[in-house]
C-alpha cells in the first residue's frame, strides 16, 4: 500500500469475533500486542489505521451499560495508538427493542445519538466513520433522496463524522458524479465510498482479479475517501490494489516527473493499469515464495517429502497392462516441478476471474462459444443430415476454438499447481481447480455433440435483469455450468477441492472404438478371476455398453493414457432386448465349448453375461430408465475428476431426454456408496435387483 501510494487501512474482519459478534469483550494482552504491532506498522509506513467496530446486531441503544462497554472497547484500542475509528451499522435488522422505541423517535435517531456520543468521547478524532444501515441506493426506502432514515442521518449526525456509502447497489457497477450528487445532498456532506468491487465473501466460487474500473476519477473531489473491500484471499489482491493506486494518482502531480506531460499522471485507463500491474505481478508470481514465509504457518504441499509406505501423489503403483498407459497426451507434458507462469496464462487467469459485473475477454469468448455451439447443435445433430456443409464447418470451427480454450484452462490449472509461488497456489487453487473441472465437463459435452449423438436437446434461456452479482452464483464456472443440460444440479459441481493439489493434466472425452480400457478398472471382484481368454473380463463388464451404447461412454485420461471410464445406457429396457438379440449370440460364438473342461466354464460365463443384463423392476425403470457404470484406476489422485467424469455422462443422458439414472453397487463397496450419495444418488433397491445382492442407487435428472 505504501509503495502504490495508498494511505488508509480499515481493520474490520468478521473472523475477529471481537469486532462484531463479541464486540463488548475487550482484547486479551496477547491480542492487544498483535493490534499494537499492526497499528504501529501502518503508521510507520505513513498509513492511517482505522479501527472498525460493528455492534449493531444486538446493541441496546438506550442502555447505559452497552454504551459504557462500547466506550471501554474503543478506549482500549485508542490506548494502543489508534487515532481513527469507524462504527458500522450495516446488514442489521431495522427493528428496535421496546426500550429503544421508547427512548428514540426512529432507528436512525438511535444510531446517530450513540455515534455522536462516542465521537465526542474519543475527542472528536480527525477520521471517524459511520456506516448507515441504508448504505446504498437499493437499500433506501423509498429512495436515497426521500429516505427518512438518511434524512435523519444528514440532519443530526455531527458534520465532521464521515458517512460510508457503497453506491447505487451493494456492489455498484459504476460510480459517477451524477450518482453521488443525490446522496451528497441528503447526507449534507460528501460520502466516503466503501467499494465492494473486488469483495468475494458472498460467493465461494468467485474471485476478482480484474482492474479497478467503472469509477470516474473526477469523483475524488466529491468524496471524503474511497476504501476498496478486497478479495478474502490475500494473494488475489495484487492487481486490485495496484490499479487502485494508479486510479488514486490520476491527475495528481507526479513528484518524479516521469513519463507524463507536465509532471502529471495522465487519464486513468483500466486496461493500461492492468497491463502495468500484470508486469509487476509476473515477477512475484514466479518467485519461490512459501506461504509459511508470509503467514507463519506451515502448509503441506504435494511436493512434501515422501513418507515411507505411502504412494507418491500422482504416481502409479503396481503394474498396469495394456491401455496405452505409457503414452502421453498429444502435445502435453507432465506438469511437475517449479514451473513458470507465462504472461498469456496470467492474462487468461485474470480474464476468467475478472469483475463481478464483467467477464474478461477469455471468459466472454468461452461463454459466447458455448452458448452458440449449444444453440446450434442441430447443425451436427442426428436430425441435421441436410445441413449445408458450410454451416457444419462453422460449427466445427467454433467447437475447435472452444475445445482449445478448455485445454488452456486445464493447462493453467496445471501451471498454477506447478508454479514457484506456493502462497499464490494455496490462495488461487480452489478457483482454478473448480473452473478446470467445469471446463472438462463442457469440453466433453461439446465433443459429444460433435459426434452426431444429440437428438432432443433444447437450449436454456439465461437472460435476466440487472441485479446484484450474488443473484447468480459461481461466476464463469457457474455460468458454464448453467449452460449445460445438467447445470441446475449444483451438487455435481460444488465440492471442496482435494487437500493436496495435483498437477496431473486430465482430459474427458467420448469413447473411440480404438480405445483400450484397462481391465484393472473393472469390477474388483472379477480382477482375480482365472480365465481362459484375455478378453473375458472386458467382454463381460464393458463389452455390451461399448458395442451397443458407445455414444454414452466417456473416457478419462491423463498424461499416461486412459485412467477411468464411465459407461451409460439411455434406455435399459431396449438395451436388454438388443443384448439378447445380438450380444449374447456373439459371445456364444466367441467362446464356444472346445472340450469337457471348458464346457462348464463357457456355460457359466454365458449365464453370467445373461444375468448381467437381467430385468429390473418396472417400478425402477419408470423413474430411472437409464443406467451407468463408473470405473477408475485405484491410484487416481484427484477424486474430483471421477465426479467430473460422471457429470459428463449425466449431461449427455439429460441432453437426450433421460429423466433418471441408476447404478448398482456392491453393499460392501462403502467408498463408492458414499461417493454416489454425495452426488445426489439415493438408495432405491437393496437385494432385489437381479439375482445378485446389490444396492441400486438412483437420481433424477
TrEMBL record:
Catalytic activity: 3-O-(N-acetyl-beta-D-glucosaminyl)-L-threonyl-[protein] + H2O = L-threonyl-[protein] + N-acetyl-D-glucosamine; 3-O-(N-acetyl-beta-D-glucosaminyl)-L-seryl-[protein] + H2O = N-acetyl-D-glucosamine + L-seryl-[protein]
PROSITE patterns cross-referenced by the UniProt entry: GH84
Molecular-function GO terms, alphabetical: [protein]-3-O-(N-acetyl-D-glucosaminyl)-L-serine/L-threonine O-N-acetyl-alpha-D-glucosaminase activity; beta-N-acetylglucosaminidase activity
SUPFAM superfamilies: (Trans)glycosidases
Biased composition (Low complexity): 302-314
Domain of life the protein comes from: Eukaryota
The EC number(s) this enzyme carries: 3.2.1.169
Annotated GH84 domain residues: 1-252
Any coiled-coil regions, as ranges: none
Transmembrane segments: none
Chain intervals for the UniProt region annotation (Disordered): 293-332
GO biological process: glycoprotein metabolic process
Hydrolase in keyword set: yes
UniProt entry keywords in alphabetical sequence: Glycosidase, Hydrolase
Protein name according to UniProt: protein O-GlcNAcase
Protein species of origin: Nothobranchius furzeri (Turquoise killifish)
Amino acid at each position: 500500500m505504501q509503495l502504490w501510494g495508498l494511505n488508509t487501512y480499515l481493520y474490520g474482519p468478521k473472523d475477529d469475533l471481537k469486532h462484531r459478534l463479541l464486540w463488548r469483550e475487550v482484547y486479551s494482552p496477547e491480542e492487544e500486542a498483535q493490534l499494537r504491532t499492526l497499528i504501529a506498522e501502518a503508521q510507520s509506513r505513513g498509513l492511517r489505521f482505522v479501527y472498525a467496530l460493528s455492534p449493531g446486531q444486538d446493541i441496546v441503544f438506550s442502555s447505559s451499560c452497552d454504551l459504557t462497554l462500547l466506550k471501554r472497547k474503543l478506549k482500549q484500542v485508542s490506548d494502543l495508538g489508534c487515532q481513527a475509528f469507524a462504527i458500522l451499522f450495516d446488514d442489521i435488522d431495522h427493528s428496535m427493542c421496546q426500550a429503544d422505541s421508547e427512548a428514540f423517535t426512529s432507528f436512525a435517531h438511535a444510531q446517530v445519538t450513540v455515534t455522536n456520543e462516542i465521537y465526542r468521547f474519543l475527542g472528536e478524532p480527525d477520521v471517524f466513520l459511520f456506516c448507515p444501515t441504508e448504505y446504498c441506493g437499493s437499500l433506501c426506502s423509498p429512495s436515497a433522496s426521500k429516505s427518512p432514515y438518511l434524512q435523519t442521518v444528514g440532519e443530526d449526525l455531527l458534520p465532521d463524522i464521515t458517512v460510508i456509502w457503497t453506491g447505487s447497489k451493494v456492489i455498484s457497477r459504476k460510480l459517477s458524479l451524477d450518482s453521488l450528487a443525490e446522496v451528497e445532498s441528503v447526507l449534507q456532506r460528501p460520502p466516503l465510498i466503501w467499494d465492494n468491487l473486488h469483495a468475494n465473501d458472498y460467493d465461494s466460487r468467485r474471485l476478482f482479479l480484474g482492474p479497478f474500473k467503472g469509477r470516474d476519477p473526477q469523483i475524488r473531489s466529491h468524496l471524503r475517501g474511497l476504501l476498496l473491500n478486497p478479495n478474502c484471499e490475500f494473494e488475489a489482491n495484487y492487481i486490485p490494489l495496484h490499479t487502485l493506486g494508479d486510479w488514486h494518482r490520476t491527475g495528481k502531480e507526479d513528484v518524479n516527473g516521469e513519463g507524463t506531460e507536465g509532471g502529471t499522471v495522465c487519464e486513468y485507463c483500466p486496461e493500461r493499469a492492468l497491463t502495468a500491474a500484470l508486469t509487476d505481478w509476473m515477477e512475484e508470481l514466479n518467485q519461490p515464495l512459501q506461504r509459511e514465509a508470509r503467514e507463519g504457518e506451515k502448509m503441506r504441499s504435494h511436493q512434501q517429502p515422501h513418507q515411507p509406505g505411502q504412494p507418491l501423489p500422482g504416481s502409479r503403483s503396481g503394474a498396469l497392462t495394456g491401455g496405452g498407459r505409457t503414452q502421453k497426451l498429444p502435445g502435453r507434458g507432465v506438469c511437475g516441478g517449479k514451473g513458470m507462469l507465462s504472461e498469456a496464462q496470467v492474462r487468461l487467469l485474470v480474464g476468467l476471474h475478472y469483475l463481478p459485473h464483467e467477464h474478461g475477454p477469455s471468459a466472454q469468448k468461452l461463454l459466447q462459444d458455448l452458448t452458440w455451439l449449444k444453440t446450434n447443435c442441430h447443425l451436427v445433430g442426428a436430425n441435421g443430415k441436410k445441413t449445408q456443409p458450410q454451416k457444419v464447418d462453422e460449427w466445427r470451427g467454433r467447437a475447435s476454438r472452444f475445445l482449445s480454450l478448455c485445454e488452456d484452462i486445464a493447462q493453467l490449472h496445471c501451471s498454477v499447481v506447478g508454479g514457484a509461488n506456493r502462497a499464490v497456489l494455496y490462495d488461487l487453487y480452489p478457483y482454478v481447480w473448480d473452473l478446470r473441472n467445469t471446463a472438462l465437463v463442457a469440453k466433453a459435452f461439446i465433443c459429444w455433440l460433435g459426434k452426431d449423438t444429440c437428438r432432443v436437446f433444447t437450449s436454456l434461456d439465461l437472460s435476466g435483469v440487472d441485479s446484484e452479482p450474488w443473484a447468480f452464483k459461481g461466476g464463469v464456472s457457474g455460468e458454464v455450468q448453467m449452460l449445460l443440460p445438467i447445470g441446475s444440479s449444483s451438487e455435481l459441481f460444488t465440492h471442496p477441492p482435494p487437500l493436496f493439489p495435483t498437477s496431473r493434466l486430465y482430459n474427458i472425452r467420448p469413447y473411440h472404438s480404438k480405445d483400450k480400457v484397462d481391465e484393472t478398472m473393472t469390477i474388483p471382484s472379477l480382477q482375480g478371476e482365472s480365465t481362459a481368454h484375455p478378453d473375458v473380463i472386458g467382454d463381460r463388464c464393458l463389452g455390451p455398453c461399448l458395442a451397443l451404447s458407445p455414444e454414452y461412454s466417456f473416457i478419462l485420461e491423463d498424461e499416461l493414457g486412459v485412467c477411468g471410464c464411465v459407461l451409460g445406457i439411455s434406455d435399459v429396457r431396449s438395451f436388454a432386448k438388443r443384448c439378447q438379440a445380438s450380444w449374447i449370440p456373439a459371445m456364444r460364438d466367441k467362446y464356444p465349448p472346445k472340450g469337457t473342461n471348458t464346457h462348464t466354464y463357457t456355460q457359466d460365463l454365458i449365464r453370467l453375461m445373461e444375468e448381467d443384463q437381467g430385468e429390473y423392476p418396472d417400478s425402477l425403470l419408470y423413474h430411472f430408465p437409464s443406467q451407468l457404470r463408473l470405473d477408475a484406476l485405484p491410484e487416481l489422485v484427484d477424486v474430483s475428476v471421477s465426479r467430473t467424469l460422471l457429470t459428463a455422462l449425466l449431461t449427455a443422458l439429460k441432453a437426450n431426454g433421460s429423466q433418471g439414472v441408476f447404478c448398482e453397487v456392491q453393499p460392501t463397496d462403502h467408498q463408492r456408496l458414499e461417493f454416489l450419495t454425495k452426488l445426489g444418488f439415493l438408495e432405491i433397491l437393496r437385494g432385489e435387483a437381479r439375482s445378485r445382492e446389490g444396492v441400486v442407487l438412483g437420481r433424477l435428472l
